[in-house]
């Protein structure tokens, strides 16, 4: 699997990955925000390719709280194969280089909370139905990552 910076030619593949993760991991209404974010990227965003196919995407941004992981996702049919773990580890390594003293945050759902706990994150708050009915918003934090 190879990671590289997102390019505009990756737009359709990324939207396809997003749609494949609706409704369990994303609300359909979030697609417009994701689409707009892809069209106006200012922050680092990456895709993972395997055998010529984009299998995952995700990025990060600096914000008032620290560094936030953004829009991380894996093709639904490839969940459970270590791609998500590799994507998070790749982004954490970039963050350690760019922002070594910053905590890392993620807003995620109850469905991926255990995954991020295994990656060293701890839940700080839970907002029931924070993304929509049945999809709770979980704010998680990981201490600064050393390079």
TrEMBL record:
Pfam families: Acetyltransf_10 (PF13673)
SUPFAM superfamilies to which the protein is assigned, alphabetical: Acyl-CoA N-acyltransferases (Nat)
Name by which UniProt lists this protein: Acetyltransferase (GNAT) domain-containing protein
Species of provenance: Pseudovibrio ascidiaceicola
Gene3D superfamilies for the chain: 3.40.630.30
InterPro entries documented for this protein: Acyl_CoA_acyltransferase, GNAT_dom
All residue ranges annotated as the N-acetyltransferase domain in the record: 1-145
């Amino acid at each position: 699997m190879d990671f590289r910076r997102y390019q505009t030619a990756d737009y359709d593949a990324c939207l396809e990955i997003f749609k494949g993760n609706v409704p369990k991991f994303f609300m359909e209404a979030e697609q417009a925000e994701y689409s707009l974010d892809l069209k106006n990227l200012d922050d680092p965003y990456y895709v993972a390719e395997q055998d010529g196919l984009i299998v995952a995407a995700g990025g990060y941004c600096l914000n008032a709280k620290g560094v936030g992981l953004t829009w991380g996702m894996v093709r639904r049919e490839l969940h459970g194969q270590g791609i998500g773990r590799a994507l998070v580890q790749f982004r954490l390594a970039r963050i350690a280089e760019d922002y070594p003293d910053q905590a890392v945050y993620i807003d995620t759902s109850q469905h991926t909370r255990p995954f991020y706990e295994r990656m060293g994150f701890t839940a700080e708050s839970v907002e029931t139905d924070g993304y929509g009915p049945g999809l709770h918003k979980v704010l998680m934090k990981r201490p600064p990552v050393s390079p």
